[in-house]
Amino acid sequence: MTNLRLLANGEIDAALTLADAVHPDGRAPAIGRVYECYIQVAVRPASPILHLTDLRGRRVDLGLVGSGSAATGEQLLRTAGLTPGVDIAVEHRRLATAVQALQRGEVDAILWGDEVPTPAFEQPMRLRLLDLAEWVAPMYQGSGYPYDTLSVPASTYPGSAAVDTVGVPTLLLASAELADHAVTCLAELLINQGDLLVPLHTIGFQFLDRRWLVGTGRVPLHPAAAAYYRAGHG
Fold first, then answer.
1. How far is the C-alpha of 51 from the C-alpha of 166, rounded, in Å?
2. CA separation (Å) from 82 to 48, 53, 112?
3. Exposed (0-12), middle (13-18) or buried (19+): which is 61, by Cβ within 10 Å?
4. Which architecture, in CATH terms, is 37-168?
5. Which of 31, 33, 34, 78 is least buried, going by the fewest C-beta atoms within 10 A?
6. Does domain 2-35+172-233 have CATH number 2.40.420.20?
């Protein structure tokens, strides 16, 4: 969504977006594969919800309208046979507000995509993550995008058990009009100062080295970025 629309309209020159949302036609080439986004679904620890399909008839917050994780979340729910707005009541909040709504019982589950642990949890709270491993292959079959299976360690959040979840890379894209030298500067920034972009104590930001930056999948690398990676970094 929103970032892709702004990029297509020429309102911004570069954008971070989830790879499953990007059309592989090269109109918005990638500067690099930056990090892995963990799609996470959380419920209260004592909730009777044990599986994704248990969300039928429940209230679920999917995050802000237009966000990539909300779109991926809808794909996940539809894959599980849950139509948003029909089988579940969908709400949209910023993550920090959604966490509070979950604590107060205003929603039954929250879905978001980010690194783990997620910095938006300013005050660590007890929650239970749903295991989503069984939906990774069906999501690929339904959408054509090869999602990853990622492991979330136990106690990532207070009291949480280890689970597997859905992963999707986050790409840094360039507009078609962005000058080659600007693309090169951004690629250089990712290579040489990428560690400054990585929050401490997170495990979802593992792609800030040349081996992973170039792994943009079906989205082609911008020629200037590809040339920079080849010339200076093999």
1. 14
2. 18, 7, 17
3. buried
4. 3-Layer(aba) Sandwich (3.40)
5. 78
6. no
